[in-house]
Design a protein that fits this description.
two-stranded antiparallel sheet
Amino acid sequence: MRLDFSVAVHSLLYLDQNRDRRIASRELAQSLSLNPVMIRNILSLLHKNNYVEGSVGKNGGYRLIKSLEDCNVGELYDLTIPPTISYARFITGDTEELDQADSTEISGNIKETLTDLFTLADEDYRRFYHQFTLADLKEDINHHGYFINKVQGENK
């Protein structure tokens, strides 16, 4: 999985904690231990999707414009991790080998089979994330175990 989702979540929670001021991408980069360019790329995406407002320059920075309750975790995941990106690098095999005399049915078909499997799993993963907001994440940060208790309570 790419870091984009984690960067988006961490950035929005940090911006929420510092709502009284604009936060520079350099400050966020220090908090996340990442390059400011990566932070700016994610913040640009969040800006285009109305999660943050931002300005450049000496007095510039970013500010969260949504409440944590209005920031759905699944929507952030969908925004930052497009389908197939999260598992595309795990697929092996080569359909071009089907034409070779020593090719195997496995090598020629494993890509489609694993894509189907990962696609179904990814859909479940995304559905799971959609039941939470950033307010839920903040609650778990403050009281670790919140998610486990919430999910286990629903499954009883």
